[in-house]
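Q: A reviewer asked whether we had any structural model of the full assembly, not just the individual parts. We don't, so I'm hoping you can provide one. Inputs are below.
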Amino acid sequence: MATIAREDQITRPTYQEITRDITATLGRPSRGYYVLLGFVLVVLAIGAAALLYQIRFGLGVAGYTPPVMWGVYITTFVFWVGIAHSGTLISAILYLFRSAWRTSVYRTAEAMTVFAVMTAGLFPVIHVGRLWYAYWLFPYPNQRQLWVNFKSPLLWDVFAVSTYFTVSTLFLIVGLVPDLAAVREKATGWRRKLYEITSLGWRGTDQQWRHYTRAYLYLAALAAPLVLSVHSVVSWDFAMSIVPGWHATIFAPYFVAGAIYSGVAMVVTLLVPLRKVFRVQRYITVEHFENLAKLLLLTGLIVGYAYAVEYFMAWYSGSPYERAAFWNRAFGDYWWATWTMILCNGVLPLILFFRKVRQSIPALFVLSLFVNLGMWFERFVIIVVSLSFEYEPYAMGHYTPSWVEWAILAGSFAWFFMWFLLFAKNFPTVSITEVKEIIPMPRKQRAHS
Amino acid sequence: MSTMTGGVLASYRFVDAASGAIRTLKAEGIRDFTVYTPVPNVEIAQAVGHRVSPVRLWTLLGGLLGCASGFALTLWMSFDWPLVVGGKPIGSVIPYVVIAFELTILFGAGATILGLIFHSWRNRQMGAYEGRFTDDHIGIFVRCPTERRAEVEALLRAAGAEEVRVES
Amino acid sequence: MAENSNGMNRRKFLTVLGVTGGGAAALSGCSSDSVEKLIPYLVPPENQVPGVATWYASTCRECPAGCGLHVRVREGRAVKVEGNPDHPVNAGRLCARGQASLQGLYNPDRVRQPLSRTADGKFEPIAWEDAIAQVAERLGGSPSDGVRFLTGHEAGSFDRLVDEWLAAFGSRGRVAFEPLGYEALRHANRTVFGIDGLARHDFAAADYVLSFGADFLDTWLSPVEHARGFGARHGYRDGHMGRYVHVEPRLSMTAMSADEWVAPRPGSEGLLALSVAHVIVRDGLASTPADVHRVRPLLDRHVPETVAAETGVPADTVARLAREFTAGPSVALAGGMGIQHAAAHVTAAAVNLLNYVAGNVGRTVRFEGTPTGRPAPYSRLVELTSDMKGGAVRALFMHGANPVHGTPPGLGFRDAMQAVPFKVSFARFMDETAQACDLVLPDHDPLEQWNDFETRPGVHALQQPVMQPVFDTRATGDVLLQVTARVGGPASARLTVTSFKDYLQRSWAALQARVGDRRPFATFWTEALQRGGVWREPSTQRVTLAASAGSLEGSSTWRLPEGRLALIAYPSSALYDGRGANRPWLQELPDPVTKTTWTTWVEIHPETGAELGIAEGDVVEIASDMATIRAQAYLYPGLRRDTVAVPMGQGHTAFGRYAEGRGANVLHLLDAEPTAFGGVATYTGVTLRATGEHAPLPKTEGKPRQMGRGIAQMVTLEELARGEGHGEHGAHAAPVPERIEEILDHWQEGQDEATKYGAYEGEHPRWGMAVDLSRCTGCSACVTACYAENNIATVGPESVRRGREMSWLRIERYFEGGENGEPFEARVLPMLCQQCGSAPCETVCPVFAAYHTPDGLNGQIYNRCVGTRYCSNNCPYKVRYFNWFDYQEPADPTFAWPEPLHWLLNPDVTVRSKGVMEKCTFCVQRIRDKQNQAKLEDRDRLADGEVLTACQQTCPSDAIVFGDLNDPNSRVSALARETRGYHALGELNTRPAVTYLKKVRNLVEG
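A: Here is a predicted structure for the entire assembly that you could use as a starting point for your response.
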């Protein structure tokens, strides 16, 4: 079952080697690392400056053109929430399915999830007109004596996303504890202090394992439906409205599939360089990528199908508004965005039907970049293009983003990668414990025979 | 658990040896011991023979509490200051299901963690321990008064311990 | 929402009662004391109660129509102008320009104190006394004709004072120049009827209106008065409506209300009118007066068949028009400036004859004696200019005229001014003409000064100061008197009064005698002040044909030069001749036809545009023999292919921050030579050239056509007669089945049941509105009224390009037809918050900023709003407006009310801050105000029509009705039940509170 145990592959590592190799990834960072980190921080600073500028003078500095009241910010919000999905999928759902190949990739995916949610969470705040009052969306006792409107999909969002962030963070930490204990023993200086605290005095006693394994199982069981719910709720921000092109029952499954699609793509994008830099090819093998590729192909096909169904429903509904809206998508002012999306998400992934492609890591890397791009455009098309072409012809308009929006978008990537870089150098990005787990412990008999 | 820290610490390389040792210990009527493993292991667990962890109860109760508070929160807040929107009923249960669901998950997960911490804390032990137990060795620490140590040590060696240490 | 305390509301009620009735509060309110000294709030004076409005009656001076005003004053500041309901001209209604008069009063670019030009050509402040001394010394005692006085159109005491003042200095050099002087009409009235003056047209009495290019709903003579009569007669009511045929190469805003549009060759309308008259006389369609035989030869020269070649209008059309015209009470109109080409006087004369032979003169076209004060024709200005150039002018005084901008540069008025040693301007703004003067002695704003205005014979309207002057200005009347006093000698002997108010009251004492009022003058005076003036029905003159009637000198058509396009320079319905260009409200008011703001555009027929390779927004060079200007193209199907049109009013080089450097002045293209009738020809031949530059037009229109979505619906009179054209149009492929409707209704009931908590218990009104599209002309007065009432920010052209205008109420204009042969039609529809019963916007707001009030309004609570803008996304009507910038923050570049413009903010309405959503509230402040009053009078419900929304109040054609839909007897619910009634996008089940009544077109049978 265990991928690493396959005979045709490199010899199965011993527990000692595993600990050694993975702890090695936490060694002294290279100059390249600091350069990268520095660059990321600069971009982040630019994004922050753009945001301050926007706060000072108002949202008008962004490119909003009524009736397009949501633009790059919400697009990017949905994009990052989507990214956040594969992590929990791989760690929770695949865990429940007992698929062993997840063990060496899930830590990276999970970390990505947490940071992606942290990034996504910024955008609803950035995009509101009075950002300094954004906390009014939380139901807390206040002088206005006013509670929030739970009928608004935005409120569902608040609850879904914050729940998702909390749970996936807990999940990540819980998974980390035994590893940190292992790292603790090797570490020195302040690092050791850090791990002593963060490992919560883990010793791997029979009692600890007894509760730990169950708890982990239940967390996975809770996280699984959560993954599906979160992006469904996000999709209802749109599906619950009356905007032609938004108001569709297919949205929840459509969005969830899209989310996992983009998430897996992002995992690939992160893993390819990571395994090189950290020299963990032995643990993250071609077979892992092939499995991820299969996941990409599956979700990609679902997304492609959803595109088709959207157009069919628009035609089948008989509603002139729906028909016009979708005609406008394909052939209106924003045709280029729509076709970019269809090409990147619907057509390109089909090459994954070839094993050669699935097994070629460079190919997968390039493809994953295209999918990331395509998925961003998918959200752009759904949000902006639908809004620009609604019911009232007199009030239709054309939106083009401003430099402020681009700067903040870039800043969000910087924010994400900053966290990821810091994480990768301080915490094991491949799960020591779980990789060991799929390797049977040495037995006396076999050792003698 | 006992706070007595004195006892015998044996470390094993092979899982079958360790589990054998555990069985003999139990056969000898020695129950007060701790097994360290780098990874959770079925064989060891069976040998030790714990009952299923009570954490699941925490999860269940947390989930139920979350669900209940989800509906309570939304409905109470709606009627506390009734405002009509979109010609919909003041308390519309259907949309509130979403909130209730999210709180179910949130509370469930939170309770699970609390349960985990609580039970692990109750069963913590301060006895002897070595770093390699989180790496590739299995450790068995038997808490026992000085007079029995020689006997226990022999027993553990017999089971194929790589190394046995008496801790006072 | 600022709600006043109850005590204040009682007194406020009395105040309002005072104005409309004869209550004490307003009576004293109209006395001059309260405005002649500052108000010490330590000792609250009469009728200045903080939080309570005082209303003053006055007269609008934005155009010569002279509508009556009621000015709402709060804490000594005018905050809103409304029409005076007692006034015979506008009966309580106002146009957009009238609504914007406040922005003249508070304009930040007013001349704030007297200025004198220094050697280096700069202006520096000067004390009033010194300025007056300077003038006095310049004039000296020596009487001479070298003193000239150029004014705008004045009709009343000031007019007389100027003449007497000039006479005092031995001069008769008075020129009253009105840029839109209607010389052609006056000339035609002289030649045909021998009457020097303009006729009054009774639209309310005319079932059939035949307009030869008269834009009688935008600028022509008295648009508000016309709109009222037209709306009443042409608007559909129980099976009847008038018919209106418009004859012009261009479909103007006025013509958008026409039932039929005839587009003859530019310049040939006169022939058409004559041939119609010919058919009437030939076929004896009407009982023509005896003396018509004198013009038979003229008429017989215009047989439809022969004329058809010239006009491009088939003979049978002419015959049909003749039949229709004589079928009932009718009126024919001749265009004013809009079609004032070289042969405009012929058109006007022809129309006079047409009216005469049809027997309309004396009925729908009435001459009521000549009013005091007649604007001189443009030719007089030309003479004055040549005098100036010739050095015959020693001193030139100018008031209410801006000839440097308002005449073709070919006239060379600016250069002529250089030849005048002493030039004094009484301008309120530093306009192009004032800039070239030596002294600028700023006049009061009309709302700050005493004056009177004889709008038309028998209508003597008063102007009174409604508040303290904003700046250190003086009424020109007073200044003139102070000058004579200073000069002393014979001059002062002739003018003995000390202040212009005394002068005014003297002439009103005389007037009192004329009208035979025996009461003490004080009573007469205060009553006149309260009512806004004195008026009586004038006697209609008997009119016969003059000797010259049969012989129309000059060529009877204007011919378009070969290879040229006909350019129509027409008065802008918002900026008029350009005097409105410094009012941000008017600059940002979308043009009713092109929906463009803040700039100059050129209207080009799409096919012509295609031929010339010109697309919308392209910068086009328009070249005439005189000059070349640049304007952005707007492709408009409502034009002949051989015609282009450019509005007047822009291209100011001075005149303040809102006017300067916007668009181009189309007058530059026109010939300065006066025409045969002494006016400027506003038609000329031009060539177009695409410059290759392009910029998006600052227009508020998204898509010009409604894609068959039935937003602005129309039904023909026939269909209605046949009992068709009922109910919802809806864009659904199939109409909603009965069963579904029932289910929806049950569902709705269930929902309503489930919402009976807290404040929602018990009976409430449901505020609703009905908009009659058969009355709405698209004039957009309501839009500006809404800006004024609700403190709506103007955002400027860049933001308009991004669709960020804040107009809570907008007039949507949709094109129909005009392609591959079918007739072109333009429809208008006022779009405002529909106050939906099940509103999509409310549900999605996370913080209850948008919610449903018990009386059925979509409340929008600004200080709850965090600005997610979800409500706007979910609003199918797109009537929610977001504060993209801080328009209320003086420190911000986007500040919308620079000092003292912010004085006009309505204290009852919040000024919204950055980052919040806003929208139409059905003027909730007015509703609450009336409700509080009712409470104080122990009335549990309001009377129908007690609450007037700002848009409804000002609507000249009475298209908007507001009231309680839960009251089955209210006017609005009666209209909502009408068969023409429909809801915009009704199939979305948003249950709007606004019912639109379909536009009705009276098409000819067959």
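A: Points you may want to mention in the reply: The CA atoms of residues 253 and 348 of chain A lie 21 Å apart. Chain A has one domain: 30-139+147-435.
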